[in-house]
Write a structure and sequence with these properties.
mainly beta; OB fold (Dihydrolipoamide Acetyltransferase, E2P); 4 domains; five-stranded antiparallel beta sheet
């Protein structure tokens, strides 16, 4: 049987009244309904499809690209709540089911939720869970300090924002490391700042060390150009002022300004920094 919830590249085996039957290299078959048939094809052609269960719980193929697939996270909209659970829009005709037991909080129609999609072994159906932390594991850390990682924002806490790191681990971005608006479901790039003895992971959104200076200098130069060559930021500017204008920390700002001054790109004035005329 073809794996549910995954993409497959299959061969067109035969054309029938309900649609095309596709097969893999060991003879497993699945139907691609007529509405997804390509405009032109020949028997023997290969086609990439996503396989899931239809309304009658039968495997079926589609050429549509769902918003989430097996063993992955996504931020999805709840379109229905029934007596058995909630249903999410994942880009396919049959909505993605979330049992009540898999809802971190009772879901509401029209609200958006970060979920993990998995295969229910009892029913062999794709379902989702908003208890995303259950699908993360920090028992064996696979990232190192200063490593670039992919992040998904989960929720805000008193300390900062919890994030999913490389779709494997839970990490934390502290409030003083955040210089942009974050919300649940955001996907962005970050860096590992520290891995702790208790296997907690501290994340930063700015490239650590001197490697961050070059992008920050570009940010400052771009802002100077957009503001007629002058920014009212200096040593005595508050961290909040710098964050509002440049989305970086005061420490990063001072490093970048020092670099630009040494390269004779800017002049430092008592009331701000000025782009040096060529």
């Amino acid at each position: 049987m073809l794996a549910i919830g995954e993409f497959h590249t299959l061969e067109i085996d035969r054309d029938t009244a309900p649609g095309l039957f596709l097969k893999d290299n060991v003879g497993n078959e699945v139907l691609l309904p007529n509405k997804y048939k390509p405009e032109s094809f020949e028997i023997g052609d290969e086609i990439k499809v996503f396989v899931y269960l239809d309304h009658e719980e039968r495997p079926v193929a589609t050429t549509l690209n769902p918003y989430v697939h097996l063993d992955d996270f996504a931020f999805l909209k709840c379109v229905e709540v029934s007596k058995i659970g909630a249903f999410l829009d994942w880009g396919l005709e049959k909505h993605l089911f979330v049992p009540f037991k898999e809802q971190a909080y009772p879901m509401k129609k029209e609200e958006w939720y970060l979920v993990f999609c998995y295969l229910d072994e009892e029913t062999n159906r794709l379902v989702a869970s908003s208890k995303v932390n259950h699908f993360l594991d920090n028992s064996e850390i696979t990232v190192e300090p200063y490593e670039e990682v992919e992040l998904i924002v989960t929720n805000k806490t008193d300390l900062g924002f919890n994030v999913i790191v490389n779709k494997l681990h839970q990490g934390l971005i502290y409030h003083d490391e955040i210089f942009q608006d974050l919300k649940t479901g955001d996907q962005l790039t970050g860096w590992v700042k520290k891995t702790r003895k208790d296997n907690k992971i501290d994340i930063t959104l700015q490239r650590p060390g001197y490697r961050s200076i070059e992008p920050n200098t570009e940010t400052i130069l771009n802002e100077l150009v957009l503001n007629d060559g002058f920014l009212p930021l200096h040593d005595k500017s508050s961290p909040e002022e710098i964050k509002d204008i440049l989305q970086m920390s005061k420490k990063s700002f001072k490093k970048a300004v020092g670099t630009l001054y040494k390269k004779k790109k800017i002049d430092i004035k008592p009331n701000g920094i000025e782009l040096r005329k060529k």
